[in-house]
Specification:
Blueprint lengths: L1 E6 L5 H8 L5 E7 L3 H10 L4 E3 L2 H5 L6 E4 L3 H13 L3 E5 L6 H13 L4 E4 L6 H11 L6 E11 L8 H17 L5 E7 L9 E8 L3 E8 L1 E13 L3 E5 L7 E10 L15 E9 L8 H15 L7 H19 L5 E2 L3 H5 L3
Parallel strand pairs: 1-2, 1-4, 2-3, 4-5, 5-6, 7-10
Antiparallel strand pairs: 7-11, 8-9, 8-15, 9-10, 11-12, 12-13, 13-14
């Protein structure tokens, strides 16, 4: 039985308390939050878990094996570092930290102490996202050419991080997972209208190996909730709509065949003809499930087996490196910026 302490019961916190307190493989023994009202609600529903406003008491508690951190991003580093230093396994919500150097420190600390460090990139536990990866890895789409990702809604508006750190973190983690790679360069622009210094909408283009482009549009200032991704391959195309509960994935047998022919005279239009293929649409069957529940189970399983989680510290570091490059590009008025590679930051491991 894994004894879990949870720090922060805001947005995701209550769901994580519920899932970790399943009493089969794990139980919640302690919960910390600065809001006494939230703690009272936890105490009413989970009376066996002690509650406190002092997070430090949980991080060092002898009866806590693993710590779950669901606090504002700016607090992740110090809390996770304290927990790892105390010998606790750590699950921390995305993004892992707000700086590459801090993320690197956590990765090194976890690896030195042989502790599990996992980041809450929950979309990698979405059944449709996993099925899409299978399609890409199997070569069903041919060579991937570009990916377009749109994540918009009206709110929730945050003050601690901008739209990129809040929303694009999801899409970068998905793109890295699907392509099994990290971006090496990024250019981005942003707009700020609500709170000074906090971007409400971000447009970014990330360059990946093998000439793959990934374009991101994220905003919490938009009239429509969109969770749309399009993957354009050499032979087929795939779409993912997270708002669709019944048909989140579609594979389109569409493409363009280059039919260049030598022209008898100079005529650039006649010398090139593109044949457009418009074939069938396949809707893969995707099993229903709760991604957050799968994420929690994966964390527990990783601790039990000693294996590296899919969203381990290095995966979280790669996302932070891309976000940091986006931030630098925004500050440089869209100028392309390099993205630090994980192997360069912490070594090959």
């Amino acid at each position: 039985m894994l004894n879990v302490g949870i720090v922060g019961v805001g947005h995701w916190g209550p769901n994580l308390v519920r899932l970790f307190d399943d009493r089969r493989k794990s139980r919640v023994v302690a919960v910390a939050d600065l809001d006494q009202n939230r703690l009272s609600q936890v105490a009413d529903r989970f009376p066996e878990a002690r509650t406190t406003t002092n997070a430090a008491s949980i991080l060092s508690a002898d009866d806590v094996d693993a710590v779950v951190i669901t606090t504002p991003t700016s607090t992740h580093y110090e809390l996770a570092k304290s927990a790892l230093t105390a010998g606790k396994h750590v699950f921390v919500e995305k993004p892992i930290t707000s700086e590459v150097e801090h993320a690197r420190d956590l990765v090194q600390l976890a690896e030195e102490r042989n502790l599990t460090l996992m980041v809450g990139h929950v979309f990698l536990f979405n059944a449709a996202v996993r099925r899409a990866r299978e399609e890409i890895e199997a070569g069903s789409l041919g060579t991937v050419q570009y990916i377009s990702m749109v994540r918009t809604n009206l709110g929730p508006i945050r003050m601690d991080v901008n739209a990129a750190w809040d929303l694009a973190a999801h899409d970068i983690s998905i793109a890295n997972y699907w392509l099994n790679a990290e971006p090496y360069a990024v250019s981005a622009t942003a707009g700020t209208w609500i709170n000074e210094g906090v971007a409400d909408a971000v447009f970014a283009t990330l360059k990946y190996p093998d000439n793959v482009l990934v374009n991101l549009h994220v905003s919490w200032l938009h009239p429509r909730k969109s969770r749309d991704i399009t993957v354009v391959g050499e032979t087929k195309m795939l779409t993912f709509d997270d708002n669709s509960l019944t048909e989140p994935l579609r594979v389109y047998d569409k493409g363009v065949t280059d039919e260049r022919r030598a022209a008898p005279f100079v005529d650039s239009f006649a010398s090139f003809r593109a044949s457009v293929r418009d074939g069938d649409i396949v809707i893969p069957k995707v099993a229903a499930g709760e991604p957050l529940g799968s994420e929690v189970a994966h964390f527990i399983s990783s601790i039990e087996s000693g294996s590296r989680p899919i969203t381990d510290g290095r995966a979280g570091l790669a996302v932070v490196a891309a976000l940091e490059a986006i931030q630098k590009s925004i500050a440089a008025d869209g100028a392309q910026q390099p993205v630090e590679q994980v192997a360069e930051v912490v070594g090959n491991g």
